[in-house]
Amino acid sequence: MTKNAPIAVANDGLAADRLAGIDLARGVAVFGMYAAHVGPSPNEGGQIGNLMELTHGRSSALFAVLAGFSIILITGRKAPKSGVAGRQAIARVAIRALVFLALGPILTYLGAPVAVILDYYGICFLLVLPLCRLNAQQLGLLAAATALVLPQVRFQLLPGPESSDFDPVFDLMVSGHYPAMTWVPFVIAGMAIARLDLSSQASHWRLGLAGSALAVLGYGGSWLALRLLPGVPAALQESAQWWSDQGSLKYESPLIAAPHSETTFSILGNTGCAMIVLAACLLAMDALPHLRKLVWPIIAVGSMSLTAYVLHIVGMYLLQFVGIDLSAHRSLSMLFGFIVVVSTFAVLWLRVFRRGPMEALMGRISDLGSHIP
To answer: Which of 34, 132, 194, 344, by CA, is between 20 and 30 Å from 113?
Structure first.
């Protein structure tokens, strides 16, 4: 590890080990995202298929939770920044949101077979800005309330199958691949976690246990609802949509917890998984200090997760450009290739520079917020 690595410096009261744990979680999310996009299809079945299915929806949810965590790091973790510092911090988050709103369509234009999430993140960032001064309990209650209410509101707002009108704002908020209405609970949950005291192993265990309870509530609640509530089609009862969207049978129902179903059960289960991963990474950094050298490539990737995201979109575009059909070449070798290339780039880059290229650019742009009086 180099002294210039960003994880080596504590941030707003968060010890360096905890910051390393967060970057480790981000790296896990990046690799999970790669698995979902270029790894073997879950429809292949078997252990590999089930393992790949675990990354679908849950990796992007982990990213969203960690994004909320980062918002609190910017605006003040132990106590919200106030006065000029507070206004400048809010401006930095708002500028980041605007960059995401611009960058998302640019990456989408490349035509890679991926639903780009960045513009949806931008909307979520703007929506949560008024919440940055709330404490952990208030944010936790708000995350729960939005997870319970907003999916039901979204179901009512969705247009019928005969509708062909496209409204970009409605798409970002309601009908898109990552609608803000059902993804903002993840961001708020991450903000609530960041407000917690994470200074001890006991707090990390509590975070993991709470995440396990949420995962059981989400996926287990869906499994029970599909089997106990009246009127559920037998085919849906027998499907795996209480946790997976494997197979050709697809239903849109508020009772399922399948990836990207945008239901309350899905949000609860995916948030729980994100908390488990984050707690495990924090515990690993605490209990096994020598492990950091072994997982340094993952931490390096996590410290430049925006760069890693952009690189994989560009990489998929270039593969298509040279005639490789990614839909026909999803494989473990393709997945490992992406992981090795991006990990090597991240490790070598951090030997020279303090931040990833996209992170440095984002930092320069968001620093415009420091001019706010």
So the answer is: 344
